[in-house]
Amino acid sequence: MSAAGDFCEAFPATFLAFHRRDGRRTELTNASRAVLQHLVQTGPVSIGEAAKHLERAQSVVSDIVSQLESHGLLEREPDPDNRRRTLVWLTETGFERLRADADVLDRRLLAEAMNHLDETTQRGLIEGLNALVAAAGKEPK
């Protein structure tokens, strides 16, 4: 069998062993997720700037920001260049929630299995997956 065939045989079992089973990833709405993802890309911005980029009314984005702030995912901070302006930015909890929301695999299950492997094997798996993605012309994360 070819290496591609071997991989295709192994992949479904690997995915089934480690995929997330917790149902809905988080309670983030699509709009909330969009605001958080936008901030990750741009850094701290004003609500008006976020609204313009997201093509939403400023009042809508302001409501979303207030909701995210009440959940500890965002915080408002004064603009260091203009104290009359307020910027919004992700808290550590916000970064963690967005990361967890993007996970396809169950990190706990994967960590438990990886602990049974030696460090060389662990590195080999990770480097091999990154090399495979790079060979497909994609950039590994």
Task: Describe this entry's structure for a reader.
The chain is mainly alpha-helical and 141 residues long. Helix content is 61%, strand content 11%. The protein has helices at 3-18, 30-42, 47-54, 58-70, 92-102, 107-114, 119-135, and strands spanning 74-79, 82-90. The chain has a two-stranded antiparallel ribbon. β1 (74-79) and β2 form a beta hairpin. The radius of gyration is 20 Å and the shape is elongated. The two termini are 29 Å apart.
**Helix count?**
7
The first-to-last residue Cα distance is 29 Å
Outline type: elongated
Mean pLDDT: 90
Record field, number of beta strands: 2
Concise description?
The chain has 141 residues and is mostly helical. Helix content is 61%, strand content 11%.
List descriptors.
141 residues, mainly alpha, two-stranded antiparallel sheet, elongated
Topology summary:
Elements: H1 3-18, H2 30-42, H3 47-54, H4 58-70, E1 74-79, E2 82-90, H5 92-102, H6 107-114, H7 119-135
Antiparallel strand pairs: 1-2
Helix pairs in contact: 3-4
